[in-house]
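BUG: 3D viewer hangs when loading the predicted structure for this chain

Environment: internal workstation, default settings.
Expected: structure renders.
Actual: progress bar stalls at 90%.

Input used:
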Amino acid sequence: MKPLRGRCTVCGWEGEFLRQDMEREGFLCGNCGASSRMRALVHLLGHVLGEGDLPLFEWPSDKSVSILESSALGPYPVMLADKFDYLPTEYDPEKIRSGGNPMKYADFQELQFPDNSFDLVIASEVFEHVRDDRKGFCEVLRVLKPGGALLLTVPYDHDRHETRTRVDTSGEEDIHLLEPEYHGGGGQTLAYRNYGRDLMALLREVGFAVCHYDLQDLLHGITAQHAFVARKGEFSEVRERRPAEPPGGSLGPLLPHRLFLLLKYNMTGLLWFLKKLAGKQ
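Structure tokens produced before the viewer hung:
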């Protein structure tokens, strides 16, 4: 396969993407480390917010926009926190039971936020791990403001009419119907299902207006993948374009990502980085 070059939707870097053998979890940005899936998510978020094709690094700040995200990974959460009223969470029932903040370790089946709290909720590769996904979607709908949106990615097969249920959750105990499948860091998070096209029907039954996106944009290193935008209320494609402002921030927040990637994959990149860093002095 011919090496793929393009521009990162997160940091704006241009060059040849790394680890192209890893499909959507690969095609890593040589600068910030964002994968194809992360760039697709940011691309869709920019579309929803009216930022067009600008990389996230260049979006203007707007602290009036409130965003909740589950299991945020990679470089883009640092930028979202800098630009928006952004709350990343990581589900950890043990920490909740031991007195941890239920907002920080949020269970999407029982969110501890008031109604109409957020403009956007981001859930990327999360809901296949939610035991009662219908209850989780209802909770997301509840905490979204009118007109707000859920940005959703899950393991999804558009050719499959019905979701493949891997675990029977009708009782108190999980009953495995198929060989257990685990995802996430270290492969320790149980997948309850693999979604099919009936996911859209489920979201509509809960009360969302839904749009399915078949994403592929090789100029930005976004390989073929699926995503959904589910609105609370009538569907609206994008916000009105906000006026452009000079990009803020600096090399600082992404320094650990850059050093890790450049040291791991190529020394040529390290020399490029040092020259760029010297140019900022």
